[in-house]
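Hi, can you check this record?
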Amino acid sequence: MNHPIVSREAWLDARKALLEREKALTRERDALAAARKALPCVEVYT
């Protein structure tokens, strides 16, 4: 992969944007896990 060379400011802007996406993904994953835990139970007969 050929990555461009940029200034620290440009890198920091890109990193902050990526961090926001990562945080959004984490929030969505947490919400999905909470929804899974909130599913109703079903009685299991043994």
